[in-house]
Amino acid sequence: MSQTEHVVVLATTELEKQGIYPTDKLQIINISTLDQYGYGFLPRHLIDNKSAESIAVGKLYTQVLPYNLLIDSNTGSVLVYQRKGKEEGLLGKWSLGIGGHLSLEDMSEDFSSTINLSALITNGANREFVEETGLLVDILSEDYTRCILSYRDKTSQVHLGLVSFIEVDDLSELDLAPSEFLNIAWLSIQELKQASLEWEAWSDIIVKSLTNEF
To answer: Where are the beta strands (DSSP E) in the chain?
Structure first.
């Protein structure tokens, strides 16, 4: 984990204003009504190291992560994969989510120093999606109408997942980052619910919440 990476955090009091509290369910979120200048940057190696101190900070200032489901709009199936990457607690578990931390990198030079949260989410979500899948899509902050705030495990306790369903017609340019994806499969909603896979916490929450989302 980089010693210099600074990631976006949001005060959990902003979430409480919308009635968002820790639970193992998808919750409704309205990005536009959050304090658009109420975010900050903290060094990831200090707040994402799973220590008691970092978890205490995370419950006050949660790290914001876009968590996108990639859907083949031709079949309605969802990309699922086994995790690789740096998160030891997630290694080998199955996931639906594609995305990652928002960071100072997303404050690109064409933005002013007072870029608001919606623009930061839009910029960071698109960057992460391209990096991990090779697909150019147009993700907007308003696409995130649901979120996950769960204290099920140490990883969940310091992160807020912004959940979106990204439907793609043409997957010919799909190029999954080998550093993140161990095995992949495409499953329907019914198959997701019946699959006997060891899901990571957020994916488990989504699978149990799904009805007819897409």
So the answer is: 6-11, 27-28, 39-43, 61-72, 77-83, 94-95, 146-148, 159-168, 181-187
β-bridge pairing 61-72 and 6-11: antiparallel
- CA 209, distance to chain mean position in Å, is 16
State phi, psi for 114 to the nearest 5 degrees: -110, 30
Question: Quick count: other Cβ atoms within 10 Å of Cβ 173?
Answer: 10
Helices (H), 42-195: 44-47, 52-58, 117-133, 189-194
3-state SS class at 158: helix
C-alpha 131 chain-centroid distance: 14
Question: pLDDT for 151-196, tens place per residue?
Answer: 999 999 999 999 999 999 999 999 998 888 889 999 998 899 888 8
- pTM greater than the 0.85 cutoff: yes
